[in-house]
Protein backbone atom coordinates (compact mmCIF):
# COMPACT_ATOMS: atom_id res chain seq x y z
CA UNK A 1 0.00 0.00 0.00
CA UNK A 2 1.56 3.35 -1.00
CA UNK A 3 2.42 6.00 1.56
CA UNK A 4 -0.15 8.57 0.48
CA UNK A 5 0.93 11.14 3.06
CA UNK A 6 4.44 11.13 1.57
CA UNK A 7 3.31 10.91 -2.05
CA UNK A 8 0.81 13.75 -1.73
CA UNK A 9 3.03 16.09 0.29
CA UNK A 10 3.09 19.57 -1.28
CA UNK A 11 6.32 20.97 -2.65
CA UNK A 12 8.08 22.99 0.03
CA UNK A 13 10.55 24.79 -2.21
CA UNK A 14 9.24 28.35 -2.34
CA UNK A 15 11.77 29.35 -4.97
CA UNK A 16 10.64 26.52 -7.23
CA UNK A 17 6.99 27.49 -6.78
CA UNK A 18 7.75 31.10 -7.64
CA UNK A 19 9.75 30.04 -10.68
CA UNK A 20 6.90 27.89 -11.96
CA UNK A 21 4.44 30.73 -11.42
CA UNK A 22 6.70 33.13 -13.32
CA UNK A 23 7.04 30.70 -16.21
CA UNK A 24 3.27 30.20 -16.45
CA UNK A 25 2.69 33.93 -16.14
CA UNK A 26 5.31 34.60 -18.80
CA UNK A 27 3.73 32.15 -21.21
CA UNK A 28 0.32 33.70 -20.70
CA UNK A 29 1.35 37.36 -20.71
CA UNK A 30 4.30 37.19 -23.08
CA UNK A 31 6.40 38.96 -20.46
CA UNK A 32 8.78 36.35 -19.10
CA UNK A 33 11.07 37.90 -16.52
CA UNK A 34 8.78 40.77 -15.57
CA UNK A 35 7.06 41.13 -12.21
CA UNK A 36 3.92 39.06 -11.77
CA UNK A 37 0.71 41.06 -11.91
CA UNK A 38 -2.04 38.74 -10.60
CA UNK A 39 -4.99 40.66 -12.05
CA UNK A 40 -3.43 40.79 -15.50
CA UNK A 41 -2.40 37.14 -15.19
CA UNK A 42 -5.94 36.01 -14.43
CA UNK A 43 -7.56 38.14 -17.11
CA UNK A 44 -5.15 36.85 -19.73
CA UNK A 45 -5.72 33.17 -19.03
CA UNK A 46 -8.77 33.04 -21.26
CA UNK A 47 -6.75 34.56 -24.09
CA UNK A 48 -4.39 31.60 -24.38
CA UNK A 49 -6.13 28.68 -22.69
CA UNK A 50 -9.12 26.80 -24.05
CA UNK A 51 -12.13 26.07 -21.84
CA UNK A 52 -10.89 22.47 -21.62
CA UNK A 53 -7.46 23.57 -20.38
CA UNK A 54 -8.95 25.96 -17.84
CA UNK A 55 -11.28 23.22 -16.56
CA UNK A 56 -8.40 20.75 -16.14
CA UNK A 57 -6.30 23.36 -14.31
CA UNK A 58 -9.24 24.25 -12.06
CA UNK A 59 -9.94 20.58 -11.32
CA UNK A 60 -6.27 19.96 -10.58
CA UNK A 61 -6.16 22.83 -8.07
CA UNK A 62 -9.40 21.76 -6.38
CA UNK A 63 -8.19 18.17 -6.10
CA UNK A 64 -4.80 19.25 -4.74
CA UNK A 65 -6.58 21.00 -1.87
CA UNK A 66 -8.85 17.99 -1.33
CA UNK A 67 -5.89 15.59 -1.26
CA UNK A 68 -4.10 17.65 1.38
CA UNK A 69 -7.31 17.86 3.42
CA UNK A 70 -7.74 14.08 3.19
CA UNK A 71 -4.20 13.58 4.52
CA UNK A 72 -4.72 16.08 7.35
CA UNK A 73 -8.09 14.57 8.30
CA UNK A 74 -6.81 10.99 8.21
CA UNK A 75 -9.20 9.98 5.44
CA UNK A 76 -6.55 7.85 3.74
CA UNK A 77 -6.46 5.58 6.79
CA UNK A 78 -9.96 4.47 5.79
CA UNK A 79 -8.93 3.59 2.22
CA UNK A 80 -9.63 -0.11 1.73
CA UNK A 81 -7.30 -2.14 -0.49
CA UNK A 82 -8.74 -5.21 -2.23
CA UNK A 83 -7.24 -7.76 -4.61
CA UNK A 84 -8.19 -7.97 -8.26
CA UNK A 85 -10.03 -11.21 -7.45
CA UNK A 86 -12.18 -9.46 -4.86
CA UNK A 87 -13.02 -6.54 -7.16
CA UNK A 88 -13.76 -9.03 -9.91
CA UNK A 89 -16.22 -10.82 -7.61
CA UNK A 90 -17.98 -7.57 -6.66
CA UNK A 91 -18.43 -6.56 -10.29
CA UNK A 92 -19.51 -10.02 -11.43
CA UNK A 93 -22.11 -10.12 -8.64
CA UNK A 94 -23.55 -6.95 -10.15
CA UNK A 95 -23.54 -8.48 -13.65
CA UNK A 96 -20.74 -6.22 -14.87
CA UNK A 97 -17.94 -7.75 -16.93
CA UNK A 98 -14.62 -6.53 -15.48
CA UNK A 99 -11.31 -5.92 -17.20
CA UNK A 100 -8.67 -5.45 -14.49
CA UNK A 101 -5.09 -4.39 -15.14
CA UNK A 102 -3.74 -4.18 -11.58
CA UNK A 103 -3.34 -6.76 -8.80
CA UNK A 104 -4.61 -4.48 -6.01
CA UNK A 105 -7.12 -1.65 -5.89
CA UNK A 106 -7.54 1.22 -3.43
CA UNK A 107 -11.22 1.78 -2.64
CA UNK A 108 -12.27 5.14 -1.26
CA UNK A 109 -14.29 5.55 1.95
CA UNK A 110 -17.70 7.14 1.43
CA UNK A 111 -16.83 10.54 2.93
CA UNK A 112 -13.85 10.88 0.59
CA UNK A 113 -15.69 9.65 -2.51
CA UNK A 114 -18.65 11.99 -2.03
CA UNK A 115 -16.36 15.02 -1.60
CA UNK A 116 -14.59 14.13 -4.85
CA UNK A 117 -17.89 13.59 -6.68
CA UNK A 118 -19.27 16.89 -5.43
CA UNK A 119 -16.10 18.79 -6.32
CA UNK A 120 -16.03 17.66 -9.96
CA UNK A 121 -15.94 20.53 -12.46
CA UNK A 122 -15.28 18.53 -15.63
CA UNK A 123 -18.90 19.14 -16.58
CA UNK A 124 -17.97 22.67 -17.65
CA UNK A 125 -15.90 21.22 -20.50
CA UNK A 126 -17.53 21.36 -23.91
CA UNK A 127 -18.78 18.07 -25.35
CA UNK A 128 -17.29 17.57 -28.81
CA UNK A 129 -18.64 14.57 -30.70
CA UNK A 130 -15.94 11.96 -31.36
CA UNK A 131 -13.07 14.19 -30.25
CA UNK A 132 -14.12 14.80 -26.63
CA UNK A 133 -17.25 12.86 -25.82
CA UNK A 134 -18.51 10.48 -23.12
CA UNK A 135 -15.55 8.07 -23.13
CA UNK A 136 -13.07 10.96 -22.88
CA UNK A 137 -14.88 12.44 -19.87
CA UNK A 138 -14.86 9.02 -18.16
CA UNK A 139 -11.19 8.29 -18.88
CA UNK A 140 -10.19 11.78 -17.72
CA UNK A 141 -12.04 11.48 -14.40
CA UNK A 142 -10.53 8.03 -13.81
CA UNK A 143 -7.01 9.25 -14.59
CA UNK A 144 -7.36 12.32 -12.37
CA UNK A 145 -8.44 10.19 -9.40
CA UNK A 146 -5.47 7.89 -9.91
CA UNK A 147 -2.94 10.68 -10.41
CA UNK A 148 -4.07 13.02 -7.63
CA UNK A 149 -5.56 10.69 -5.01
CA UNK A 150 -3.67 7.45 -5.76
CA UNK A 151 -7.03 5.74 -6.14
CA UNK A 152 -7.04 3.27 -9.03
CA UNK A 153 -10.55 1.90 -8.47
CA UNK A 154 -12.42 4.49 -10.54
CA UNK A 155 -13.41 2.38 -13.50
CA UNK A 156 -14.43 3.42 -16.99
CA UNK A 157 -17.76 1.76 -17.62
CA UNK A 158 -19.47 1.10 -20.94
CA UNK A 159 -23.18 0.44 -21.00
CA UNK A 160 -26.61 1.41 -22.26
CA UNK A 161 -28.92 4.32 -21.55
CA UNK A 162 -32.65 3.63 -21.23
CA UNK A 163 -35.53 6.07 -20.94
CA UNK A 164 -36.73 5.37 -17.39
CA UNK A 165 -40.35 6.19 -18.28
CA UNK A 166 -40.80 4.52 -21.65
CA UNK A 167 -38.02 1.92 -21.34
CA UNK A 168 -36.90 2.88 -24.83
CA UNK A 169 -33.24 2.38 -25.73
CA UNK A 170 -31.44 5.72 -25.99
CA UNK A 171 -27.94 4.61 -26.92
CA UNK A 172 -24.61 3.30 -25.71
CA UNK A 173 -22.64 5.40 -23.25
CA UNK A 174 -19.42 5.63 -21.23
CA UNK A 175 -19.38 6.76 -17.60
CA UNK A 176 -17.58 5.86 -14.38
CA UNK A 177 -18.21 3.08 -11.92
CA UNK A 178 -16.73 3.49 -8.46
CA UNK A 179 -16.67 1.01 -5.56
CA UNK A 180 -17.05 2.88 -2.26
CA UNK A 181 -16.49 1.46 1.22
CA UNK A 182 -18.81 2.44 4.08
CA UNK A 183 -17.03 4.02 7.05
CA UNK A 184 -19.80 2.74 9.33
CA UNK A 185 -19.91 -0.98 8.50
CA UNK A 186 -17.16 -1.66 5.95
CA UNK A 187 -19.52 -2.80 3.20
CA UNK A 188 -18.67 -1.96 -0.42
CA UNK A 189 -21.24 -0.33 -2.69
CA UNK A 190 -20.88 0.32 -6.40
CA UNK A 191 -21.65 3.86 -7.53
CA UNK A 192 -22.29 5.16 -11.02
CA UNK A 193 -20.74 8.58 -11.65
CA UNK A 194 -21.64 10.74 -14.64
CA UNK A 195 -18.60 12.97 -15.29
CA UNK A 196 -20.51 15.12 -17.77
CA UNK A 197 -22.90 16.36 -15.08
CA UNK A 198 -21.26 15.49 -11.74
CA UNK A 199 -24.27 13.36 -10.75
CA UNK A 200 -23.97 9.99 -9.05
CA UNK A 201 -26.13 7.15 -7.78
CA UNK A 202 -25.80 3.51 -6.77
CA UNK A 203 -25.86 0.57 -9.16
CA UNK A 204 -28.95 -0.66 -7.29
CA UNK A 205 -30.77 2.58 -8.15
CA UNK A 206 -29.22 3.46 -11.54
CA UNK A 207 -31.47 6.36 -12.57
CA UNK A 208 -30.24 9.92 -13.03
CA UNK A 209 -32.92 12.35 -14.09
CA UNK A 210 -35.14 10.24 -16.30
CA UNK A 211 -32.33 8.09 -17.65
CA UNK A 212 -31.54 4.58 -16.49
CA UNK A 213 -27.90 3.51 -16.70
CA UNK A 214 -27.24 -0.14 -17.53
CA UNK A 215 -23.56 -0.99 -17.00
CA UNK A 216 -22.20 -3.81 -19.17
CA UNK A 217 -18.41 -3.77 -18.95
CA UNK A 218 -15.90 -1.82 -16.85
CA UNK A 219 -12.14 -1.33 -17.18
CA UNK A 220 -9.93 -0.52 -14.19
CA UNK A 221 -6.40 0.80 -14.78
Give structural notes.
The protein is α+β, with helices and mostly antiparallel strands. The chain is 40% helix and 27% strand. It has 7 helices and 9 strands. The chain has helices at residues 4-7, 14-29, 38-48, 51-73, 84-93, 110-118, 134-149, and strands at residues 80-83, 97-100, 104-109, 155-163, 169-181, 188-194, 199-202, 207-208, 211-220. Strands 1, 2, 3, 4, 5, 6, 7, 8 and 9 form a 9-stranded mixed β-sheet that branches. A hairpin with a 4-residue loop joins strand 6 and strand 7 (199-202). The mean pLDDT is 85.
Describe the structure in brief:
With 221 residues, this protein is α+β, with helices and mostly antiparallel strands. The chain is built from 7 helices and 9 strands, in the order ααααβαββααββββββ.
Layout of secondary structure:
Layout lengths: L3 H4 L6 H16 L8 H11 L2 H23 L6 E4 H10 L3 E4 L3 E6 H9 L15 H16 L5 E9 L5 E13 L6 E7 L4 E4 L4 E2 L2 E10 L1
Parallel strand pairs: 2-9, 3-5
Antiparallel strand pairs: 1-3, 4-5, 4-9, 5-6, 6-7, 8-9
Amino acid sequence: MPDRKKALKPYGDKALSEMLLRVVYGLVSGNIGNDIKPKSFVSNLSDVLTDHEQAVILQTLINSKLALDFVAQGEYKAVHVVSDQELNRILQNNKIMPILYDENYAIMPDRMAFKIFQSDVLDIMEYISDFFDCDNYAFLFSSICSAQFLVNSVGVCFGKLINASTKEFIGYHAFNIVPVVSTSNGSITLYLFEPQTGEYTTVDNPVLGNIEYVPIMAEFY
